[in-house]
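Reminder to self: tokens first, then the designed residues, so the page reads top to bottom the way the pipeline ran.
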């Protein structure tokens, strides 16, 4: 679990050091106190990046930021992760146990994170591209083969799209296409298995959160039909990009075969988003250790009917091999939380 966090020139913090004595942490403070910044720094330790471009995290007037985290395991010696960004060179470096990582991807999987925030509503009302990205990030954090296949897939896609714009070599398009078809098949195998398990895990959560619609809700994964991909080459040359592949697959919440966003109220949608993120959290905790849920803005997007219950609900379902960091405007009433107060100055 993450036991220590140090921030240098990261957003509003010149120097901040936090120690965590629990696996249920509440970062408490008012608006602009730095709650989201703390959670974003943990995202950097997990994936090497946050919501915004790297330069946006450098404190005004400074030339770099540094995020350092110490992970402690019961069976292994502590691990140290440092993410360093040099603003003048626009260069990011990652050190794992004081050794320079050859690429950012080496971070993926060391401390998997799942986010619960305003963006979580996109599980119901957002674009399918966003949902695919979340599934891909989660799978990449739990399986190195998936990560490498995904990297290869998008590299091939970029190369094929460039060729479609610059050459007329059908043999080259077919060669890239055959490799892209192979990576798409592997990606879909992983995605389909995840979605099947996710629908099993989410059932009991929906019974507690949306009991009247629990049995009719289903997360559907619909692969794009690639069977005739070679017949699309002429049209692809005209448009300059690939018209098929795993990057075009659909991921949609449905109620009785119709998109759920048509039937759900905002409150029901917020609770479905909550259930989706928790189910992903439970699934990840089956695969990896040191899984961390980062909960931010939950007070803004949860409906009033369930608002006060969210912290207790998270504690009640938390896997034993994971942790929670929740940003809160007010102190939480449950004694299980280690509550860290941030100064608004």
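Designed residues (345 positions):
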């Amino acid at each position: 679990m993450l036991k220590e966090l140090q921030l240098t020139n990261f957003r509003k913090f010149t120097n901040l050091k936090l120690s965590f004595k629990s696996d249920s942490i509440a970062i408490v403070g008012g608006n602009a106190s730095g709650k989201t910044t703390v959670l974003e720094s943990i995202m950097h330790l997990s994936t090497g990046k946050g919501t915004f471009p790297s330069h946006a995290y450098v404190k005004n007037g400074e030339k770099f930021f540094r995020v350092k985290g110490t992970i402690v395991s019961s069976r292994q010696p502590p691990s140290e992760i440092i993410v360093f960004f040099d603003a003048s060179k626009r260069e990011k470096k990652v050190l794992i146990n004081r050794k320079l990582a050859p690429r950012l991807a080496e971070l993926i999987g060391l401390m998997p994170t799942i986010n619960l925030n305003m963006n979580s509503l996109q599980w119901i009302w957002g674009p399918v591209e966003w949902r695919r990205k979340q599934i891909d990030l989660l799978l990449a954090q739990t399986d190195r083969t998936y990560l490498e296949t995904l990297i290869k897939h998008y590299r091939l896609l970029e190369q094929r799209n460039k060729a479609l714009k610059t050459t007329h070599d059908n043999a080259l398009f077919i060669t890239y296409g055959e490799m892209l078809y192979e990576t798409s098949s592997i990606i879909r195998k992983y995605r389909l298995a995840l979605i099947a398990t996710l629908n099993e895990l989410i059932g009991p959560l929906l019974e507690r959160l949306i009991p009247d619609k629990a049995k009719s809700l289903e997360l559907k994964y619909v692969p794009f039909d690639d069977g005739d991909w070679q017949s699309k080459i002429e049209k692809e040359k005209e448009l300059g990009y690939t018209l098929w592949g795993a990057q075009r697959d659909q991921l949609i919440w449905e109620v009785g075969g119709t998109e759920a966003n048509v039937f759900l109220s905002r409150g029901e949608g917020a609770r479905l988003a909550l259930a989706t993120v928790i189910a992903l959290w439970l699934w990840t905790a089956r695969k990896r250790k040191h899984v961390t849920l980062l909960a931010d803005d939950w007070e803004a997007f949860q409906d009033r009917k369930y608002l006060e219950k969210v912290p207790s609900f998270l504690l009640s379902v938390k896997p034993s091999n994971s942790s929670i960091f929740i940003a809160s405007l007010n102190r939480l009433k449950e004694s299980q939380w280690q509550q860290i107060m941030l100064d608004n100055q």
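Residues 1-112+290-345 form a domain with the Rossmann fold fold (CATH 3.40.50.300).
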